[in-house]
Amino acid sequence: MRVTINGTEQTIEDGLTIAQLLEKLGKSPKFLAVERNWELVPRTKHAESPIAEGDTIEIVTLVGGG
Questions:
Q1: Could you state, in order of their start, the residue ranges of all structural domains in the chain?
Q2: Which pLDDT value is given to residue 62?
Q3: I need a surface site. Which of 3, 31, 45, 57 has the fewest CB within 10 A?
Q4: Where does residue 51 rank: exposed (0-12), middle (13-18), buried (19+ CB within 10 A)?
């Protein structure tokens, strides 16, 4: 299915959850924020949040500092 990830259209497997997508991309959810269609998806919901055709996913790395 076609989705947009961080502004780039990509083809991914049908039925992936956000958690599965992050795993396939080699990303650790511990230091990320994920939005699906401009709504924040809490880390505790990644495994139960399926991605649908046409979704827009933004993956943002959290950076600490001061």
A1: 2-61
A2: 77
A3: 31
A4: buried
Amino acid letter, 26: G
**Nearest in space to 55 (alpha carbons), one of 20, 44, 41, 1:** 1
Q: How far apart are CA 11 and CA 28, in angstroms?
A: 21
Instruction: Measure the CA–CA gap between 36 and 58, rounded to whole angstroms.
Output: 7
Query: From 3.60.10.10, 3.30.360.10, 3.10.20.30, 1.10.287.990, which CATH number describes the 2-61 domain?
Result: 3.10.20.30
Both tokens assigned to 1: 């299915």
Residue among 28, 23, 48 nearest 36 (CA): 48
Per-position pLDDT tens, the chain of length 66: 999 999 999 999 999 999 999 999 999 888 899 999 999 999 999 999 999 999 999 999 877 766
